Amino acid sequence: MKKPLLLLFLYSFSTLLTFSQQKTETFKTKTDDFISKTGTIIKIVDYTPSYLRTKYSNCNTKVRKITNGSNSSLYVFQIINEAQNITRVASIEYSDLIEVIKAFEILKSDAMKDYSSPNYLENKFVSKDGFQVGYYVNDNKLVWYLALEKYGSTNNTVFLDDISYFETSLLNARKKIEELINDNK
Predict the structure, then answer these.
(1) pLDDT tens-digit profile of 126-165?
(2) Architecture of the 30-184 domain
(3) Distances 60 to 17, 66, 122, 129, 185 between C-alpha atoms, Å
(4) CA–CA separation, 61 vs 49, rounded Å?
(5) Which of 4, 122, 166, 171 is most exposed by smallest CB count within 10 Å?
(6) How far apart are CA 105 and CA 98, in angstroms?
(7) What residues pair up with 135 in beta bridges, in sequence order?
């Protein structure tokens, strides 16, 4: 009686592990997809590192140019959160960055209207690669946040101290990437 129960338990446990691993392994960001090509030389160059003001952690931002052997390039805006010996990184590819900037403008406008929300309200934008920017209103207190990675919950949320610093980082990243694209032509 004990042996069949033990086998059933082990089978169930191994099935759960398999499905949980498949979920995280099947999701690839644009950056992951670009740099995972084998048989090519990958060159990574970082530009304009800067500090992003946040409430509870130290975040830095940078623009990254990734070139593979066929001379095609990927331009990425990265937000790096280093807290409690864990580093979380959001890599926002250029076309997604443009979408994030547009969405951020709408969110800023909505935040002014939502500020006097009854009890709780959340409004956010999620990029194709899983980066999130948004805010929540709780008891008439507005809090802006960034979720850097699609999976995982430890240290992947950053709370913004002042949204103007984040907005400046977005616009500076777009400007730098556009300069790099024009220099490549």
Answers:
(1) 998 889 999 999 888 899 999 987 655 566 889 998 999 9
(2) 2-Layer Sandwich (3.30)
(3) 34, 19, 25, 19, 29
(4) 6
(5) 4
(6) 11
(7) 123, 144
